[in-house]
Amino acid sequence: MSVKKVPMRQCTGCREMKNKKELIRVIKTGEGEISIDATGRKNGRGAYICKNMECFRKAVKNRGLERSLKTEIPASVYEELEKEMAAIEK
Questions:
Q1: Which Pfam families does UniProt cross-reference here (predicted)?
Q2: What residues are paired with 18 via a beta bridge?
Q3: How far apart are CA 27 and CA 32, in angstroms?
Q4: Which of these, 31, 39, 58, 69, could form a disulfide with 13 (CB 3.0-4.6 Å)?
Q5: How many CA atoms lie within 13 A of 51 on its CB side?
Q6: Distance CA 37, CA 30 (A)
Q7: Exposed (0-12), middle (13-18) or buried (19+): which is 23, by Cβ within 10 Å?
Q8: Rounded to 5 degrees, what angle do the CA atoms 11, 15, 16 make?
Q9: CB distance 9 to 23 below 8 Å
């Protein structure tokens, strides 16, 4: 039997490599819309964050999401993402 490879991704907050299924994917679509991708399969450029608010705050502070998504992110989008992250964390 061959061993199945586990996909690893880096959290933009804490910068640790983790299993892709343990992280939340934030995407930027072709139209420039930024949202959380719960399925992990939507089209667009993706960035990953751990499922806790501390990593989200680190990613906002060090502009990790902006670097990964290669775009400027307005404060209103961060507020919306924070609400969605709080709902997921519970």
A1: YlxR (PF04296)
A2: 9
A3: 9
A4: 58
A5: 13
A6: 14
A7: buried
A8: 80
A9: yes
Q: Name the burial class of residue 35, with classes exposed (0-12), middle (13-18) and buried (19+) by CB atoms within 10 angstroms of its CB.
A: middle
Structure token pair of residue 30? 């072709």
Would you call 66 exposed, middle or buried from its count of C-beta atoms within 10 A (0-12, 13-18, 19+)? middle
| C-alpha to C-alpha distances, 67 to 37, 47, 60, nearest whole angstrom | 18, 9, 10
pLDDT reading at 39 higher than 80:
yes
Question: How many Cα atoms occupy the beta-carbon half-sphere of 33 within 13 Å?
Answer: 7
Q: To the nearest 10°, the Cα dihedral for 68, 22, 13, 77?
A: 60
Residue 42 is which amino acid? Answer: K
